[in-house]
Amino acid sequence: MSGENEPNDRTEPTEPGHRRGLDGPAPEERPTPAGRRNEQGIRIDPEVEAKQEPRRTVISTLVEHEPGVLSDVSGLFSRRQFNIESLTVGPTTDDDRARITLVVEEPDPGIDQIKKQLRKLIPVISVRELESDAMRRELALVKIDADRPSEVAAVADMYDGKTVDSCPETATIEITGSRQKIDAAIETFEQFGIREIDRTGTTALARGTQSTAAPASTTESTAEAASHPQNQYAPADDD
Amino acid sequence: MSERATSIPPEEQHDDQDADTTANAGGDDTTAGGDDTTAGATSADTAAAGNDTQPKPVTTGAESVVRALENAGVEYAFGVQGGAIMPVYDALYDSEITHVTMAHEQGASHAADAYGIVSGEPGVCLATSGPGATNLVTGIADADMDSDPMLALTGQVPTDFVGNDAFQETDTTGVTTPVTKDNTFAADPDRVGTDVSEAFALAREGRPGPTLVDLPKDVTNAETDREPDEPATPDTYEVTEEADPTIVASAAERIENATRPIMLLGGGVIKGEASETCREFAIEHDIPVVTTMPGIGSFPEDHELSMEMAGMHGTGYANMAITHCDTMIAVGTRFDDRLTGGIETFAPDAEIIHVDIDPAEISKNIHADYPLVGDADTVVSQLARAVETSPQATKWRAQCQQWKSDYSMAYDVPEDEPIQPEFVVEALDEATSDNAIVTTGVGQHQMWACQYWTYTEPRTWVSSHGLGTMGYGLPAAIGARLAADDDQEVVCIDGDGSFLMTLQGLSVAVRENLDITVAVLNNEYIGMVRQWQDAFFEGRHSASDYGWMPEFDKLAEAFGASGFRIDEYDEVADTIEAALAEDGPSVIDVHIDPQANVYPMVPSGGDNGQFALAEDQL
Ligand SMILES: Cc1ncc(C[n+]2csc(CCOP(=O)(O)OP(=O)(O)O)c2C)c(N)n1
Ligand SMILES: [Mg+2]
């Protein structure tokens, strides 16, 4: 190569005089292992690959009540492509702390990752996946056309709904309960014509004397916990 | 001269730091008033400066920021001045901390990052608000990907202006949240010093990473007499040092019964100061060792057990070993896709013992059969105590040695063609000591620097692994130089494209008279991209052929550095020697074969065991 340095003055590459690359057995001449892993990096029997199905679960986190925590948490979910169904945030008995309740839907390894990644956020104090018998409640406001007021009232009654606003054209019903109950109520209200809906997302507490905000136990966060999930999804109670 | 050569035939962005004040008609800049207090303090200071056994009490937020750095033992900081950070710089003026004024904030963050890699202590970088802060972001993201300890301090517009789209306002904590281990908006002058102490501690403790404190100008200007707390992590931060003993016991049993064991050492081994313990363990039990790219230097590559680096451009023998092992002791690695290739075919017969300080890395990409959460050195020591008999792996070791000869990295040096890059890397290695530090840009040259330099010591390989940042090499050499011992040479093996991205840093190296040697492997190409285009885009060289490059030797001279140029093999050794002999910065423009390619290669998502040795195998 001579010292020319004029723009676009380089000689076109010629065919290399030697074979470019390294010596050694070609790929097809090499032994190949029998095993395989699935998408989650778990070794599998290639014959009977069991795909991990996503499950829905509630994760309750106690966080320092400071600016930016909510965006830290929501940013984490979008950045890591975790599937999130709802997120609620509110104060606790301690002014310095807030609770964030998340409903997520992921296969077991994803749920495990969510818990671990949440724990890594510095303002997060504790993270806990709630048992399937935990109390879960959501509130919805449903504004419907009030053309048939008595029928609307009957349906509202059926779902323990409360009429919080009404005028000749519309009625707004408040419904509280499990996600499923609210889904069902909304479906039923559809026959009247729904104008607007607002839902709070799931709030949840552990049952009995158990504390929802059990501090993060560091040992629980290993793969052991992931391989024996105690928290198989079961529909929330609806009492 | 070279072990592997089988010779056949043979920005200075001067935009508007000044404009800060000009544009301040709106009233941003209250420094004018604030300066009086500073001036008063300074004269009192000079009077008392004679017998300074006791540091003088802090009087402002900025002073407490600097005091926090001093308490943490910070010796160097890298940065660029500007309106919003001026109070901090003013406090630095009286400090023992040596500030290196960089030509560009990106360089400041890379220099701090490299300083952190080489010294093991967080590197510190500073920038003003807005463009200063955003220019740091690449280096912060780089440190985040590689878990390098770093503390970034950014100026911010005064608190009352935040949210108003004020001059040079950027939501710096918002911008950097995804790329920092933690960041803080300092809102309180009484706490700002402690915020910095805490950020420093967080950058260093557990899994290291970059932290940032955003410093509004009113907070740093404000009066306070609160001394910062000592550097400590917040209560909500927990690190597990020791792994669960029952899992250690079962992992040990697995190791004892392995017939095809390997150790896979990642960057965490170096960060956790576990290189020595891992070496002893591997040698004691005769276990072949593969490293990841950040793990280079954790195990001596001239040792018989070393299989060197695995992954996309890892050695054939490392990739064979990783593919066929039955037990993998993986320490301090996050199983990045450049290492694993396709997950389905990654070590598919291996039970994985995964040691990592970050529980979230366990089973993130590759399922861990034996999850060992803890500090690398502590956990490998636990394993060392628990393993009683070495695995019976004579046949496996022989197989590994066989692969080393089957897939030798030997390359041709045809005399009628331009210089082969491998030869240059080996010549540089030969001309320097064992503890010389190598920094790089990103591209083919980086891979040759991995493959053909024989690393034997931790903290001598300084590169941009996870983010793959072109332009990392030169500023990293600056940071590495200041962290290194005087007898350690610092060599930047750069690409022509990468060098162009940050070469304004030469002005810093010259001004500070830093003894670094930059060898630009100049192919006048975005070589790595050109190689992929040849392999996967029918040789259509869209935007990869620079076709022309400035003369880097002359450019270096213009900066006041020494410039050299190599075109022929017989110039290589002498020129390298001359460049290394220079006391200040020198640049060698090495015109290499523009057609040279990096092999072996595992295409993205491919099977490690099916690495290509030449283009027709891709
Ligand atoms: C900042 C940045 N921009 C773009 C890329 C994409 N990229 C990867 S390698 C490469 C080529 C680098 O060219 P050069 O520094 O000359 O190295 P070579 O491959 O020629 O050795 C490019 C453009 C990158 N890694 N970093
Ligand atoms: Mg190039």
Give a count of the beta strands of chain A, DSSP E runs of length 2 or more. 11
CATH architecture of the largest domain in chain B: 3-Layer(aba) Sandwich
The strand line-up of the biggest sheet of chain B is: 3-2-4-5-7-6
Helix count, DSSP H or I runs of 4 or more residues of chain A: 5
CATH secondary-structure class of the largest domain in chain B: Alpha Beta
Largest sheet of chain A: 5 strands, antiparallel
Mean pLDDT value of chain A: 84
Number of domains of chain B: 3
Q: From the 3D structure, determine the CATH topology of the domain at 55-134 in chain A.
A: Alpha-Beta Plaits
Structural class of chain B: alpha/beta
Bound molecules: thiamine diphosphate, magnesium ion
Whole-angstrom Rg of chain A:
28 Å
Structure characterization notes:
The complex is a heterodimer of chains A (239) and B (618). Chain A is α+β, with helices and mostly antiparallel strands and 239 residues long. Chain A has helices at 69-79, 108-120, 149-158, 179-189, 223-227, and strands at 36-37, 43-44, 55-64, 84-91, 97-106, 124-129, 135-145, 162-166, 170-177, 194-199, 203-205. Chain A has five helices and eleven strands; from the N terminus they run βββαββαββαββαββα. In chain A, the strands form three sheets. In chain A, strands 7, 8, 9, 10 and 11 form a five-stranded antiparallel sheet that branches. In chain A, strands 4-5-3-6 form a four-stranded antiparallel sheet, covered by helices on one side. Chain B has a six-stranded parallel sheet, with helices on both faces. A six-stranded parallel sheet of chain B has the order 10-9-8-11-12-13, with helices on both faces. Chain B has a six-stranded parallel sheet with strand order 16-15-17-18-20-19, with helices on both faces. In chain B, strand 2 (76-79), helix 4 (86-92) and strand 3 (98-101) form a beta-alpha-beta unit. In chain B, helix 5 packs across helix 19 (473-483). Chain B has 24 helices and 20 strands. Chain B folds into three domains: 56-221, Thiamin diphosphate (ThDP)-binding fold, Pyr/PP domains (Rossmann fold, 3-Layer(aba) Sandwich), CATH 3.40.50.970; 240-406, Rossmann fold (3-Layer(aba) Sandwich), CATH 3.40.50; 421-599, 3-Layer(aba) Sandwich (Rossmann fold), CATH 3.40.50.970. In chain B, 62% of the residues are buried. Chain B is of the alpha/beta class. Chain B is globular, with a radius of gyration of 25 Å. The chains are: A alpha+beta (239), B alpha/beta (618). Magnesium ion is lined by residues 443, 495-497, 523, 525-527 of chain B. Chain A: Residues 58-132 form the ACT domain. Chain A: It comes from Natrialba hulunbeirensis JCM 10989. Chain A: Residues 211-227 have a biased composition (Low complexity). Chain A: Keywords: Amino-acid biosynthesis, Branched-chain amino acid biosynthesis.
